[in-house]
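Problem 12. The chain below contains 286 residues. Write out its predicted structure in token notation.
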Amino acid sequence: MNDLNPCWNWNSHWPAPAKLNLFLHVVGRRADGYHLLQTVFRFIDRADTLSFSPRDDGQIVLATPIPGVPPDSDLTVRAARLLQQHTACRQGATIHLDKQLPMGGGLGGGSSDAATVLLALNHLWQTGLERQTLEQLGLTLGADVPVFVHGRNTFAEGIGENFSDVDLPAASYLVLHPAVNVPTAAIFGSSELKRDTPAMQAADWRPGIGHNDLEAVACTRFPEVGAHLAWLKQYSSNAMMTGSGACVFASFTGRAAAESALSRLPQGMTGWIAEGLAEHPLAKIP
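Solution.
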């Protein structure tokens, strides 16, 4: 996945990588209820994969619907239709989604899928939108969509749409997935959520600085998250929850150390190793 396909076309398989939040602070709340955040997004090589087939009837069809998610509500379908509407494009597409990232895991899977749809169909339909315009469209779909369109590991602020790109060292991550679906709205809506962490300057952040303000609420409401995090902290003091959960992760300077920890994973826990990416695989798509 780290090699950029030099000739993206209708026969390509388009990656939608996961992200980790290397920290996540809630620094305030707007009058409209949106939370003001600071976080660093890092892309990893665990990913969903999408493919597309052209249609001449103008329809958007999801060939692989997710159980329990109506196609009209699916972010991939909504992203494709949004691009159609914004550009007055009359072309259609059949979307095939190979879903590998867990829903409600804090890895940004749905947002990443939507961003890949915007990037891929903008290229395939030749609608010609600049990446910044695609970021703005993505924000209407969800707060995490713009960063996947943006394509760089980045320090994000606001509701997640203001970026200061960062260069991150190579790292292997052990990611654990508790068998729970954590609703983002329930975490952000909690009265117990800390919303006044002092803001920092992007230039002052370094790997290892910060924590996840959502973690305490998620661990209280979903004990499985807390149990997985407690186990992981035995092997890494930097273990943390990503996003609003449920997944937790820890970084290791070498893959061997991550594999050693993974080999001790208790029965009933699920985890995997992922490598940090220098950038999104579609960062340079024209």
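Discussion. The radius of gyration is 19 Å. Students who got a different answer should revisit the alignment rule from Section 12.3.
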